[in-house]
Amino acid sequence: MSSVSVVVRVLAGLMLAVGVTAPMTVAEPQPVADPWSDGVPVTHQYRQTYLTAPDGTRLHADILRPAGLPEDARTPVILTVSPYRSHTAYISLPRLTGGPSTESLPVEMALRAGYTYVIVDLRGFGGSDGCPDYGGPGERSDVVTAVEWAASQPWSTGRVGMVGVSYEAWTGLLGLAAKPKGLAAVAAFSPVVDPYSYLYMQGVSWKFSGKPVTENGIRPADQVGLEHLAIASTPGRPEDSAEYRANAIAMTQPCAEDFLSLTGDHDANRPGWRERDLVTATRGNTIPLFLGQGFLDANTRPDRVFDLWQAQGPGEHRAWFGQWGHSDCHTKCGTPNFETELLAFFDRHVALRTVEVPGPKVTVGQFDGGWRAESAWPPADSRRYPVELRTGAYTDRGFLPGPDREIWSISQPFDRVTHLSGVATASLRLGGPPSATATIELYDVEPSGRATLVTRGIAPVAADTRIRTLAQDWPLAAGHRLGVRITDVVDDVWSHAPADARVTVDAARLELPLLTDARVPDLTGGTSEAHAKWRVEKTTTLPPEVLNNAVMFMNLPNETGRP
C-alpha cells in the first residue's frame, strides 16, 4: 500500500472513530442555529436526495426548506456546492450531532427570508462518489448539475443564487464560468480564483498556517493535496444511508495519485493549471457577482482575485475589499452593514423582489481603520510611480536573520498622507543561481523606527526578475516613511530550500500605485481581529544602522527630502 493510501486511511479511521461514538438523533422539523443566527433557531423541513451528473457521478444533496411550506410551494434557492460538508465533520472538525452541516453558512438568514437552501457535496466528498479534481472539469460539471437540478425542481422558482467562502466561493466562480441555466447571482468571499497562484507564487510554494496551534505558516502548499484527500475520505455516520456511507470512503488509488500529481506541481505552464484559471474563464461575466476579499488573508491571498474583478463584464456587481482575514464579513470585518447588503443582493437578483441593494459598488476598508466608497478598485486615480532602489548583494541562506540576507531602501518622511492603493510590482536585475529566490517587502516606517509590513512578493532569481506583490489599500501617515526590503525568503510565508549562494542586485526598480486624490472615509465601520493581530505580529523595529544608512530620496509625492 502506498504512502498516499496509508495517510488517507489512517485519517479516515480516526474520523470514523469520532463518528461512531457520537450517533445522531434526527427530528423533523429541526431548528437550525449557526453563526448567522440572531439567537432564535428557525425550524425547517429537511430531506436528502441524490443528483446524477452527466458522467454518472452521484452527488449527495441536503435540502432545507422553511417550515410549513407545501411540497410544491415555489421558492427561490440559495445553493452551496462544497467539499467540506460531510455529516461527520465540517472540514476536519468533528460534528457531534450529524445531519446537514450548516456551519458558517447563511442558512438561517435564507430560511427566514423565504428561500430554500441546498447544500451539494462535490464529487468525492461527503456523500458523493467520484473523483475530485481540484476545480477541474469534473467539479465544474458538478456545479452545473447542482444549479440546473435546483432550478428545475417543482418547489423552485427556477432562480438560484450561490454563496460561499474559500473553496465554497470557488465553486460559485466555477458557476460563473459555466453559466448553467438558472444561475441568477453569485456571492463569493475569499475565493480561490486561480488554484496555481493559491498554492504557488511564481513556482515558490506558499506556507499555510498551523491553526489552532499557530497562525504562522508551517504547512507547505505543495502538500495540501494530502489534506484534501483526507477530507475526501471522511466516512459517513451509522445513521447515513448505505449509499452515503459507501461513497464517503470510495477514494481510489488512481484518483488520489492524479490529485497529488496536480497539486504538487510547481510548474505554472502545466495545462491542468491553465484550464483552471478562472480569471480567463469568467472574463466578461454579466451574472451579478458579490465578491469579497481581505487584504490580510493568509489563505486565499489578495492576488489574482483583483484581476478577476477587473475582468467582469457589465452588470450589477458588488465588492468588499478590506482589512480582514479568511472570511466573509458577517462578524469578522468590523462593520454592521454586510448582512443587509448580502440579503438585498439575493432578494434583488434571485428572488426578483423590488429592493435596492444598499451601499456603493465597492466598499473599501483602509488599513488605518477608515471605510470608504469606490466605483472601482484599484481606483481610477491610482497612478504608478517608479522608484529606483538601493543595490548590493545578499546571501540566499534562509532561517536565521541577519544583515547579509537583506538590502533596505527607506524614503524620506512624508509631509502628508501618501495612500498606496493597488498592486506594487518590482523589476530586478540579478546575478545568482535559479535555485535562489528574491523577495520584495514594503513597510510603513514610523518616526520611532517601528516598521509594519504592508505587502510582499517573491520570485526565483533570474537575470531579469519580476515580482508582483499582494494587493493593499494603505495610507502612510504624515511623518512616516516607506521602507523597502530585498531579501531571499520569508521563512514562515514560503517554503524554500536555501541555495547557500550569493545573489547580486545590479538594478532594482519598484512601481508603487498611489492615489492622486486624497480620500476622506465616508462609510461606517471599525477594525477586525485580523487587523489588530497584523499590527502586533507583522512589525519589526529597524536598527539605527538601517535607519541611518538606508535612507534615500525616492521622488515620491509628499516626500519631504530632496535629491
Automatic annotation (TrEMBL):
Residues 343-504 form the Xaa-Pro dipeptidyl-peptidase C-terminal domain. Coiled coil: none annotated. Gene3D superfamilies: alpha/beta hydrolase (3.40.50.1820). The keyword Hydrolase applies. It holds the Pfam family Peptidase_S15. Keywords: Hydrolase, Signal. This is CocE/NonD family hydrolase. It comes from the Bacteria. Residues 1-22 form the signal peptide. GO terms for molecular function: hydrolase activity. NCBIfam families: CocE_NonD.
